[in-house]
Amino acid sequence: MVTRLHHSVALTTLETPDIAHDFGLLSLAPGQIAGLSGLPGSGLTRIGLSLLAPYASRGTLVYLDVRGWASPAAAWELGIEPDQFVVVRSSDVVSWGRIVATLLDGVPSVYAEVPRGMPDRALYKLAAKARAQRTALVLRPITGQLPSGVAHLNLVAREVVWEGTEAGHGSLKHRRTILAVSGRATRGMERTIEIEDNGTNDLRVVSDMGAQTTGEVVG
Amino acid sequence: MWYPTWALRQPGKLWGKLGLDEPTQAVGQDGHVVARNETAARCGVTVGMMRRSAEAVCPTITTIVQDLRVEMARFEPVVQAVESLVPRVEIAEPGTMYIPISGAVAYYGGEEALCERLDKELEPYGGDRRMGLAAGIFASYQAVRQTTTDDPLHIVDNDAEFVRNLDVESLGSADIAATFRWLGITTLGALAELPVSAVVTRFGREGLLAHRQAQGMSRRVDPRSIPEDMTVESQFDPPIEDFEQASFVARNMAQRLIGNLAPHGVAPHRVVITGIAADGSERSRTWRSADPFSDKSLAERVRWQLRAWIEGVTGGIHGGLALLRLEPADLSGAGRQMALADDAKAFEETQRALMEVQAIAGRENVVVAHPQGGRDASERVLWTRWGDKENTAERDLDAPWPGQIPGPSPALVPSTRIPFDITWVDGIPEQVRLRSRWVPVLSWAGPWRRSGRWWDEEGPSDQYQIVTSTGAYLCEVREGRSYLLAVYD
């Protein structure tokens, strides 16, 4: 069964706690962890940064860049001030854990790409530290998914639909990403949502496509 | 003591020969003229003018881009020469220093005799040097600014009388000066006649400071004593010989010092930097700032000073730097009030965490970015090492940049072009390879033709936005091969 909502709701600010509470999605309280899985290009970087953007209005947001590809322009478009956005580049698996642990000690919000080969045990320890330090943490594995139980909110990109381009004409304008959402935020049930992104500083959940138990995209 | 053309000094090439024939200007990091010689002045170049404007009025002008660290290294011997006559000299910036002369005046037999002696001592260093003598810091600064090349000495007999005739512009704040003018107050004398309570009510702390200066009173030194533990000290074993390492330590110590003072609501106007070499020799220098030092501005001064000691003409620090001490003085509560939303503790913790991360990942790998102009996504980002002064933008942000790929901006931009497999059918992209599998192209935009930087022997290329069911990518086709430029993630 597919349920469609009749209105669009912006969920990227902490100033809308009632809405965030109603949906329990796309907001990250201090100490909560979100895991993002999907191929590069599915829009997960912007979604991850939008989860942390409210923290950047009061403090520093650190992006731990494993590939060396991070571009801050997308963060600026989400309303994050340039001075509040710090990029740490490190592709070294050995020091990655130390860097994240250090950041969790002093930074209110961290977006960390997870390099290949990171042991599950290290991720569980860092998750516990994030909860203890009340640091909002978004983890984006370069490949695969996070081990179960690490993240409060798991977002898996299923499909992306872009508008604006057609047979050589136009340019990219507007994206809708279909995500499978699971974790404690959805009380253990997998749900499918669709997020609208037009490149401005608000991502919008345009429809909550209902509970799914199979993890398949609702068509 | 003020060297108005200190920034123009270039060892070897122009040292001591400026002002003769070639128009020359020094430009700060913000693109404004900070110094120019007489020839440039005759062409219409003024201090504060934009570099482009200066080059427009004087096309043959030689431009020197200011490097304060290098300037300080060159200024160090001058300071040492002055200190051989009068101790406890305070530096405001390379080219400007405050010399406490109350004791020296008696020793040398008068103000003019002392000035002559100082002038003689500084003769070997050449250059246009000027002196302003007054009882207070503000008056002496204004006095030296009124000197000319032909009349390089200005002695103020009565600070209060002297400052009465100064324009309100001399307060150093364009905003407050404009407001005073609008109220019909054009001189500091007129300001001094206003009741202090009225000025404070209207202008707050800034107004109070302006009123005190207008009355000839220098900034009041905070009477609170400085506790012993406010001095920050670090010992190094093995001693530091590398400037980069010392620079890192400087920032750490500056942050500790300012952080320790912050809970007391004060910041220093004056800091004594003391370095002890491994051979036991000690050197010390005092730095002064009109505004209270922040951690960044203090770290900058400490770095300049360390560079002057380590790499300067004075022969370096023998055996390396074994101890560094920062001693605050002349504390003031000005400028330390944080905004309501600011959390000082959280800010401090963040700074500490990032410094620690710098130690793990390397200084080059902790960066912040600011927007600048450019056509490509990578060009539009100006990276700066975290904690360093923001780099100067290479490209104008407000320029139109025709050919720029329209928004939204890609979230992932590889630092180099990555080969990207695309299959083409009659010039139309059909499939792209993502990791190990081929994915059909659903739609695309382009090609957008780029002529390339022909002066760098770069050929033309075509750019495309390619959309698949898993995402969108910015690609480039160059010389028959396709590359990934950015990912809209």
Identify the CATH architecture of chain A.
3-Layer(aba) Sandwich
CATH topology of the domain at 230-356 in chain B: Dna Ligase, domain 1
Total domain modules of chain A: 1
Kindly provide the radius of gyration of chain B, computed on alpha-carbon positions and rounded to a whole number of angstroms. 28 Å
| Main structural class of chain B | alpha+beta
Order of helices and strands of chain A: EHEHEHEHEHEEEEE
Say which CATH homologous superfamily of the domain at 230-356 in chain B is assigned: DNA polymerase, Y-family, little finger domain
Tell me the β content of chain A: 25-35%
Helix content of chain A: 10-25%
Enumerate the strands of the largest sheet of chain A in spatial order, edge to edge or round the barrel.
1-10-9-8-7-2-6-5-3-4
**So how many helices of chain A?**
5
The major sheet of chain B is characterized as:
6 strands, mixed
Overall pLDDT confidence of chain A? 79
CATH level-3 fold name of chain A: Rossmann fold
What does this structure look like?
The complex is a heterodimer of chains A (219) and B (489). With 219 residues, chain A is of the alpha/beta class. Chain A has a single domain (9-212), classed as P-loop containing nucleotide triphosphate hydrolases (Rossmann fold, 3-Layer(aba) Sandwich). Helix content of chain A is 25%, strand content 34%. Chain A has a ten-stranded mixed β-sheet with strand order 1-10-9-8-7-2-6-5-3-4, with helices on both faces. The longest helix of chain A has 14 residues, at 93-106. Chain B is of the alpha+beta class and 489 residues long. Among the domains of chain B are: 6-66, MutS, DNA mismatch repair protein, domain I, CATH 3.40.1170; 230-356, Dna Ligase, domain 1; 366-403, no CATH class; 418-487, no CATH class. Chain B is built from 13 helices and 21 strands. In chain B, the strands form six sheets. Chain B has a six-stranded mixed β-sheet with strand order 5-4-10-9-11-8, covered by helices on one side. A five-stranded antiparallel β-sheet of chain B has the order 14-21-20-19-18, with no helix packed on it. In chain B, helix 6 links the parallel strand 6 and strand 7 (153-155). Chains A and B meet through helix 2, helix 3, strand 4, helix 4 and strand 7 of A and helix 13, strand 12, strand 18, strand 19 and strand 20 of B.
